[in-house]
Specification:
mainly alpha; three-stranded antiparallel β-sheet; 4% strand; Probable peptidoglycan glycosyltransferase FtsW
């Protein structure tokens, strides 16, 4: 094994820094929109995001970037079980919080936390550790495909019951990327690609809101005052930004009709104020981050580090790109946040901790 690198991957660290700083600025601008609407809880929302999310998240990033990533392998099953248990707590009366038709948060000492965010990272660590452990049996239907389905099964049950299909999609994509990278045979990959649309079809039969979102995606001109309202207002905001935008902080839609300007729709706020050039720059930053993460994975000295880097890069990158695609009308609305930008202290905390683990992996890169 080559000598350990003394520093984290600097381009990757720079991309994380730029995304977090720019994200904080965009979030602050979006927050003024709800303040002007008379949103009464704005102070606690901003505090949770900027102080608990970014503040503690940066501390978590520094800590995890300095922990040898190989230590996570030993504790993978415990982390995964703990994340599953925390996610199940949302169903406990007086502890779980229901909002917007979903039961996804728990209230601890007056602060809300979304445990499914931690489940994303827990599933990635578990999948990386598992496929390293059974690498000699990856071609086996029992240990290969069976292991993949086993890791996904319990999170799927918990997240469908909440419901939180967006988070389930991110977990599935991340674990699937790890599964492929571990050397899964093509026949197993093909089986998964057949199972996923079948499972989505079944879910749409029992979850009408999913069917409505898919129908809105294919027929956006229908129900513009109901299911199609958010995407309509998002496209208006993005289109009104033109080439260079209205100017930072000068967006109009966040003050009026744009739903969730600090959450799902925050990319629309950014595109209106920064224009086409600003929107493209945000997309480029996330693409560069994801590709740099994959480059780190390709130069790790061991399989666990490579799979861990692939999973984390897929998680953080796909989350951002799916959110942006939904705001552009290129994918159905999922409720997935924009990584490092959207409102959510727990999402920001886990995202930054995950980025720290990715930076830790980069310390051991064999590429000079």
């Amino acid at each position: 094994m080559k000598k350990r690198a003394s520093h984290v991957d600097r381009p990757l660290a720079l991309l994380v820094f730029v995304l977090v700083v720019c994200g904080a600025l965009v979030f602050s601008s979006a927050a003024f929109g709800l303040l002007a609407r008379g949103f009464g809880n704005i102070t606690s929302v901003v505090f949770n995001h900027l102080i608990l999310g970014i503040g503690i998240g940066v501390i978590a990033l520094v800590v995890t970037s300095n922990i040898d990533y190989r230590r996570w392998r030993r504790f993978a099953p415990y982390i995964f079980v703990l994340a599953l248990a925390a996610t199940a707590l949302v169903f406990v009366p007086q502890l779980g919080i229901e909002h917007g038709g979903g039961r996804r948060w728990i209230d601890l000492f007056g602060m809300s936390f979304q445990p499914s965010e931690a489940l994303k990272l827990g599933a990635i660590i578990m999948a990386a550790a598992y496929f390293v452990a059974i690498r000699s049996n990856i071609q086996s239907l029992k240990y290969g495909l069976g292991g993949f389905l086993g890791i996904i099964a319990i999170p799927a049950v918990l997240l469908v019951l909440q419901p939180d299909i967006g988070t389930l999609g991110i977990i599935t994509a991340s674990v699937f990327a790890i599964f492929i990278s571990s050397g899964a045979p093509w026949r197993h990959i093909f089986i998964v690609l057949c199972i996923v649309p079948l499972a989505l079809g079944i879910l749409m039969l029992y979850r009408p809101y999913m069917r409505d979102r898919v129908m809105t995606f294919f027929y956006p001109s229908q129900n513009q005052q109901a299911e199609g309202y958010q995407i309509k207002q998002s496209l208006i905001a993005i289109g009104s930004g033109g080439l260079t935008g209205r100017g930072f902080g000068q967006g109009v839609q966040k003050f009026t009709y744009l739903p969730e300007p600090m959450g799902d729709s925050i990319f629309a706020v950014a595109a209106e104020e920064l224009g086409f050039l600003g929107g493209i720059s945000i997309i480029f930053l996330f693409l560069a981050f994801t590709l740099r993460g994959f480059a780190v994975a390709a130069h790790t000295p061991d399989m666990f580090g490579g799979l861990l880097a692939v999973g984390i890069s897929t998680y953080l990158g796909s989350e951002a790109l799916i959110n942006i695609a939904a705001m552009l009308g290129m994918a159905p609305l999922t409720g997935i946040p924009l990584t490092f930008v959207s409102q959510g202290g727990s999402a920001m905390l886990v995202s930054l901790a995950s980025a720290g683990i990715l930076l830790s992996v980069s310390r051991h890169s064999t590429k000079r």
